[in-house]
Amino acid sequence: MIRTVKPKNARSKRALQAKESKLKENVKTALFVTGATANKACHDITVDLAALKKPDIQRFNKKNEILPFEDASSLEFFSEKNDASLLVFSSNNKKRKNNLTWIRTFGYKIYDMIELQVLDDFKLLQDFKKGSFSVGLKPMFTFNGAVFDSHPVYQHVRSLFLDFFRGEVTDLQDVAGLQHIISITADDVEEGQPLPLVQFRVYTLKTYKSGQKVPRVELNEIGPRLDFAVGRHQSPSPEMFKESMKKARQLEAKSKKNVETDLVGDKIGRVHVGKQDLNQLQTRKMKGLKKRFDQVGEDFDDLEYEGEEEHVAKKAKK
């Protein structure tokens, strides 16, 4: 592990503070590591994937002798040294051709891993007509196939890609920023058959006038076009999963007393009112509400009312 040293200047102090835990974490950095057996195809594929993730990437040009599923200590060291929680390790051999190992870390420890092997019929950005989008924009995602909701391996794939390309979390929405979309497709899993391929496609959005309020939208593929075969995968331990799902108390929504939200989303409040004595209720003082103006029948024998009537008569004689 990296030694914890006391910062000697302001620059190193800021670097250490950037690695500390925060209530709202920074955008995750992806580190692309080249294996000792990686070929030119692995290099070109990782360059195109890094272009989709820019600017939050780092790439290693030097090859490294690493076997992620046997010993991942070197990857944990790279993760801590470069403050990167996402890693893509590329390798190539006869058994696993054009193999990309996607790795996530938590606390600079391996969280989960999955191997996605690129088939030979892939196409890169340079194989398509010129088309681009602004760097740093968040992509839209579509996952086509019920398998992404039912099968644990493909749930892992969906979680991985969403976490990898999510970018900065913000509440601001701008239609001009919706420039590209990543489409991931997989067929249903059949018993006795190998796991279906994961088809990775990238499109740009173009809008045209349609003569209506809503414009006409067209998708143009810009690449890369990759077909992944699912290989080995490693899930997080229950203890690490529970630890990673914890939320800071400062970020938890404070519950308000006697305020609830129903299934529709409407806010319902409950007000507790004490017992009221209506006899002492203060009403507006109007002349017509005085007792002497009450309309009563002949059989009315209220002594207080009669006494007040006599008082009014005496006052009139004077």
Structure summary:
By secondary structure, the chain is of the alpha+beta class. It is 23% helix and 25% strand. This is Ribosome production factor 2 homolog.
Task: Please characterize this protein's 3D structure.
The chain has 318 residues and is of the alpha+beta class. It is elongated. The protein has helices spanning 10-19, 40-53, 73-82, 147-150, 152-165, 238-244, 303-317; strands at 30-35, 57-64, 86-91, 99-106, 109-118, 140-144, 180-185, 198-208, 216-221, 226-234, 259-261, 267-269. The protein has one domain: Rossmann fold. The N and C termini lie far apart (109 Å). Strands 1, 2, 3, 4, 5, 6, 7, 8, 9 and 10 form a ten-stranded mixed beta sheet that branches.
Compute the number of helices: 7
Q: Can you give the helix content as a percent range?
A: 10-25%
* Count of structural domains: 1
Give the terminus-to-terminus CA distance.
Answer: 109 Å
Over the alpha carbons, how many angstroms does the gyration radius reach?
35 Å
Mean pLDDT: 85
Q: CATH superfamily, please?
A: Brix domain
SSE sequence, one letter per element: HEHEHEEEEHHEEEEHEEH
Principal-axis shape? elongated
CATH topology: Rossmann fold
CATH architecture: 3-Layer(aba) Sandwich
Low-confidence stretches: none
| Main sheet summary | 10 strands, mixed
The count of DSSP E runs of length 2 or more, i.e. the number of strands, is 12
β content, as a range? 25-35%
